[in-house]
Structures are given as C-alpha cells and as structure tokens.
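Methods: example folding runs. The two proteins below were folded one after another, and each record is reproduced exactly as written to the output file, sequence line first and structure-token line second.
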Amino acid sequence: MPLAALAADLHRAIGRGEIDVLFQPQVSLRDGAITGVEALARWRHPRLGGLGAATLLAAAERADLGVALSDHVQALALARAAAWPATLAHLRVALNVTAADIAREEFVPRFLARIAASGIAPARVTAEVTESGVIHDLGAAAATLEALRDAGVRVALDDFGTGYSNLAYLTRLPLDYLKIDRSLTLAITGDTRERVVVEGVLAIAAGLSLDTIVEGVEDASQRELLAARGATYYQGFLCAGPLDDAGLIALIEEGRA
C-alpha cells in the first residue's frame, strides 16, 4: 500500500485502537537479569496485518501525526506496564521520544503528568531520544532532558551508530545511557577495523560514565565479546524479541522459578 494511503489510514487507526505496544527485554551483561524493557509500537492494520515501527513512523510523519502518535504510544505503554503483576514491578520502561517531542514547549509537564497518571514511579521510566533525528537547539534540548532527570526519569540516546552519530550530543545532552545500534553489534564479531570502532564507542561511553545498552544481540559470541569489552546491557533475540504482556510475564516468571 502506498505511504500516502497508510497515512490516511493512520488518522483513524489511533481512535480505533489499532496501535499496539510490545515490549523487548533489556538484559544485564553482568548477571543475565532482565532489568527493563523497551516499548515498541506496532500497527495492527485491518487489511495488511502487523506493521512495524519503521512503517508506522513513516506514515505518521507523512500524516503530520508524529506528536499525536508519540503521546498515544507513551500513554498506552505506561498504562500496560502499570497493570503488570508484582513480579514485574522492578522493570524499567523505556519510552521512545523524538526530537520533535522534546522541542515542544509543554513536553516536560505533559510527559511527567502522563507518568503520574499511570501510577508508575518516574524512577522506573527511561526516555529514549532517537539519535537519528536532528536536534536543532541542543541548549534547549539539554534543559528539557535535565528537567526530566530532575524528576527522576533517566535519559538514553537511542540508535547511536546510525544517522548523524553527532558526538556533540554526547557532550552536551544530560544522559544516563548510550544505546548502541544493531549495525555496530554486528561489527563486534567482524574484522579488526570494525571491532575497533565498537570498542571506541564503548570506551567513549565508559569515559563519560554512561551505561550502554547494545541492540540486536542475537548469539552468545556477541554477548560474550560485548561483556568482555565493558558493555552494560543488551537487547535482542538472544533473550527475546518484542513480546506482548503475557509473553513478557511468562518470561520473567519462568526465569524466577
């Protein structure tokens, strides 16, 4: 289906409840414990079936619904997480936040109000800022993210290694985590030149006292190499793909058995 048609459909999809959220575990490389999840949007299209985040975000941009979609997905993810059983109460919940989101004048109070309405403690929430989007005013963005951190929310720079990979983001934005894109994960088991790049990124993060979350880890050799080089957490099919609530609950509770 052409993107323009998808964009038209999206105007109705939010109201019809077609936008869903799945959760992908984030795992400690130190002890293998699942410590958090990233909330990932999915579109249950009535004719095309399940559509992933990339298609959904492209349609939202075409329809000028990016901000509305962000608000909806964030609220939905928080509401779902608030309903989890006590065995999942320790999990952090990472919500994707775009450059357009943080440029909004009222973003901080609205985001914090959304968290408060869910009943989840701000200390359990991570705002994942997509690195591939252009942040035009780093000073204003830094003030916005610092306000979130002052309220207890942690901040991650997402998808590092793609897009602009702007090192100024690392030095000027108040961050807690650096998320390393899956393209760099593949490089950890590549040739020497590729490994040097990954090791350099991990060294920069360590020098800035940032924890790292490595995306796209699919096999034990990647996990072991990343752990040996000081990465903190991983996310990927080695543990699990994106899960619905029942799947996530089963994974956590089986791991505790």
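Second run, written to the same file directly after the first:
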Amino acid sequence: MRVKQMLLDDDGITYVIGETKFRYRVDQRPNIKVGQEVELVDLIRNTRPYLVMSKENQKK
C-alpha cells in the first residue's frame, strides 16, 4: 500500500497508509516517505507503532 499522508505534532508522527493510521513517537519513527509503497505486515512487524487506528475505530 502507498503512504498517503504524514502528520507531525509535538508528541509524535502519524502515517496514513490506505485507510489505516500508524502512530509513532518522534524518536522512533520509521524511515518512510509520503508516496512510498509499503507492505503493512512488514511495517507493523519491523517498526512497532504504538497506536494503529483503522477506519472502523474512527467512527463517533
């Protein structure tokens, strides 16, 4: 899947990949860029995000 967006704030960085958001602490962010193709299984296994939010989890 392709990295759609990267959101940076004081506490961390969020990557939007497909319909899923992956949250990382700034000091542990993976070396990926917007537009890059990534395999989700490898991304999760190799980078250990501290929060993963799917589209379903974002409903109010």
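Comment on the second run: The mean pLDDT is 86.
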